[in-house]
Amino acid sequence: MISFHEFCNALRNNGYQTYGRYQGFMNACEMASVQDRDEAAMFLASLIYESDGLKYTKECDPKTLTESKKIYGRYIRRGFFPLKSIENYKAASVDLGENYDENPEKIEKEEHSWKVSCWYWQMFCKKHLPEGFLKLTESAFKITDGREKINNVYTTVCKSFNINPRF
Questions:
Q1: Residue 130 burial (CB count, 10 A)
Q2: How many CA atoms lie within 13 A of 140 on its CB side?
Q3: Count of C-beta atoms within a 10 Å radius of residue 108
Q4: Annotated catalytic residue within 6, 39, 50, 98
Q5: d(CA 107, CA 109)
Q6: Residue 164 among the catalytic residues
Q7: pLDDT of 19-70, one tens digit each?
Q8: CA-CA distance, 116 to 77, in Å (whole number)?
Q9: Is 50 a catalytic residue?
Q10: Which of 6, 14, 39, 88 is catalytic?
Q11: If both were cysteines, with which of 63, 81, 128, 166 could 136 make a disulfide (CB 3.0 to 4.6 Å apart)?
């Protein structure tokens, strides 16, 4: 579906390294039932934006980390698509047969970051695909600030995949 070269270009052209994540991304596309290159572009652009280029699997900005801990306790933002709140951790635990609600740090591991991100994509994102990337990111990720940045990430991913963006 997406070649190694296309994946690397999508990350590098957005200013990120690949961190050896190609195979993880391809496995995630399969786990998340990604249907085509258009959906793969939306999936990867969202992952890039939410995880700072597939670099982070947990909240690490000191200011937002402090705020997250005040609001969510130990259920801070974790995963490439960061889960937050005990409700999300419990839902992912039940649906994926894991104990994330009892062991939230588990999501920081790459294998579980992919697993939870695929779950999130299927639960909250796929239903917005027909409406385009703008609606998907507004609805599933509540992105209002940073709109220009995520749109640029998506446009760059689409160019790297040689497809037209669907906003």
A1: 9
A2: 26
A3: 13
A4: 50
A5: 5
A6: no
A7: 899 999 999 999 999 999 999 999 999 999 999 999 999 888 888 888 888 8
A8: 12
A9: yes
A10: 88
A11: 128
Out of 9, 59, 98, 151, pick the active-site residue: 59
Catalytic residue list contains 59: yes
Structure tokens at 142: 């509540």
Please tell me the predicted confidence (pLDDT) of residue 156.
98
pLDDT tops 90 at residue 73: no
User: What are the angstrom distances between the C-alpha of 161 and each of 1, 28, 45, 101, 118?
Assistant: 10, 17, 11, 37, 20
**CA 114 – CA 79 distance, rounded (Å):** 7
Residue type, 111: E
Contact at 8 Å (CB) between 145 and 137? no
- Please state, in angstroms and rounded to a whole number, the distance separating the CA atoms of residues 166 and 146: 18
| Conformation bin of residue 49: beta by default, left when phi > 0, alpha when psi is -120 to 50 | alpha
